[in-house]
Design a protein that fits this description.
- The chain has helices spanning 24-30, 53-68, 94-108, 157-170, 179-183, 201-207, 237-246, 282-286, 308-316, 326-329, 341-354, 357-368, 372-392; strands at residues 9-15, 38-42, 72-74, 80-83, 119-124, 140-145, 173-176, 191-194, 224-228, 251-255, 271-275, 291-294, 320-322, 336-337, 400-401.
- It has two domains: 4-198 and 372-407, Glycogen Phosphorylase B (Rossmann fold), CATH 3.40.50.2000; 201-368, Glycogen Phosphorylase B (Rossmann fold, 3-Layer(aba) Sandwich).
- Helices cover 34% and strands 16% of the residues.
- The strands form two sheets. It has a nine-stranded mixed sheet with strand order 3-4-2-1-5-6-7-8-15, sandwiched between helices. The chain has a six-stranded parallel sheet with strand order 11-10-9-12-13-14, with helices on both faces.
- The longest helix is centred in the C-terminal third of the chain and has 21 residues, at 372-392.
- It is α/β, with parallel strands linked by helices.
Length: 408
């Protein structure tokens, strides 16, 4: 590990809203502070907004933020600057994407000379940001690939795949959160690194042991079968509905914002939707789960998904039942996997019966070995290594695939 005083780079990051829902890029880079300055550019997503209630709320919130929030603002964390440039939706349209690039670069200009002597590293989580690469005087560019965005619902698959191909072609380093997302990359002249998602162990383990006396979860009769996360089209709500109908003696609790029409959500006396819960309060809610679920559909999108919630469930010590997606199957020794409603129900029942302190210890031990702090340090050292190699080789990084996800 390099000494903090030897860090000689700053980062310009294009990703989600810093103060929004918890997401992997923020988790991974938060521990860069304060030794590595971060300029965080809050970028709109790739999906064209519709007239759904969720999209309308998001549009209003974003418009209000542009009108009432400064275009840049200091943050509580030292060495963090947050940029909120005005942007136009429909990034899938090339001229709109180019206009948004101009707006972002203009917003960034006052910050590009804030840290003289530090090499600039640009990182983006969005696949349509290939046109920003090379325009900020950066020494290294990184694409942090956390999903197969071309498989997202309601996007132009061909156009997004084309934009992502452009970005992969320009970026020096590709960081993937799942094996499949790394294996899909043409590694010609690039470093491709697989860093799986981690967990803030103390947040979930320690906060999950205290508080929550006023949590509405506590008032719901057990056994409590729980899920937390975004409720979207990749969650198999039909599966949950069948299992809930087959087992009226269990309470099914779903925590998180829904991006689906209310009419599409399953109904039942034993199904409880609690809506969005602040990240700070989440452990005090989830501590009352008896079994935690990852009920994702198995399709082209989820084949490359590494669920953030898996390690968070483990940090709480919870038994986990999941559908068979690849990143989950790696942990078959500490969770149960089932494909159909009958098997899913049987796996939940077995988890309720066989749970115990030793099983919870094993799950927490897995989570301890996957801390965000450890992964953040790993990425810092990788960036330093790549900057050094690029400098010595005249700007070229040789192709290599570093260790697979299950080893980091």
């Amino acid at each position: 590990m390099k000494n903090a005083s030897n860090r000689k780079f700053e980062m310009i990051v294009f990703s989600d809203e810093w103060e929004g829902l918890p997401f992997s890029c923020k988790h991974l880079l938060r521990d860069f502070l304060p030794e590595v300055p971060l300029t965080w550019v809050e970028t709109i997503g790739l999906r064209a907004p519709s007239f759904s209630a969720y999209d309308l709320r998001r549009a209003v919130d974003k418009a209000v933020s542009w009108l009432h929030k400064p275009k840049s603002r200091p943050a509580q964390e030292k060495n963090l600057a947050i940029i909120n440039p005005i942007q136009i939706p429909y990034n899938q349209i090339r001229w709109v994407r180019n206009l948004n690039k101009s707006l972002m670069v203009r917003s960034l200009n006052p910050f590009l000379s804030a840290h003289p002597g530090l090499r600039k590293v640009v990182l983006t989580t969005w696949p349509f940001m290939g046109n920003i690469i090379g325009s900020l005087g950066e020494s290294l560019s990184i694409y942090y690939r956390v999903d197969d965005f071309s498989e997202f619902p309601c996007v132009d698959k061909i156009r997004i795949a084309s934009f992502e191909k452009e970005l992969i072609g320009k970026a020096d380093v590709i960081i993937a959160s799942a094996d499949k997302l790394a294996q899909d990359i043409d590694k010609n002249g690039k470093v491709v690194e697989c860093i799986p998602h981690g967990v803030d162990y103390a947040h979930f383990n320690e906060n999950g042991k205290t508080g929550g006396e006023m949590s509405p979860v506590r008032a719901i009769p057990g056994p409590r079968i729980g899920f937390f996360g975004s409720i979207n089209s990749w969650v198999d709500l039909d599966l949950l509905k069948i299992v809930a109908d087959d087992h009226p003696e269990w309470s099914f609790i779903l925590i998180g914002p829904s991006q689906l029409p209310e009419s599409s959500l399953p109904k039942g006396n034993n199904i409880h939707f609690l809506g969005k819960v602040d990240y700070e309060e989440l452990p005090s809610y989830a501590q009352y789960f008896d079994v935690a679920l990852i009920p994702f559909k198995v399709n082209a999108l989820t084949m490359g998904v590494n669920p953030l919630k898996m390690m968070e469930y483990f940090a709480l010590g919870l038994p986990v039942v999941s559908t068979p997606i690849p990143e989950v199957l790696k942990y078959g020794e500490v969770l149960r996997v089932a494909s159909d409603p009958k098997a899913f129900g049987e796996a939940i029942r077995a988890s309720l019966i066989e749970d115990g302190e030793h099983a919870r210890f094993l799950r927490r031990d897995v989570a301890k070995r996957h801390s965000w702090r450890e992964k953040s340090g790993y990425l810092k050292n990788l960036i330093e290594e790549c900057l050094e190699r690029k400098c010595k080789s005249g700007g070229f990084l040789s192709s290599e695939l570093r260790p697979t996800c299950d080893s980091n």
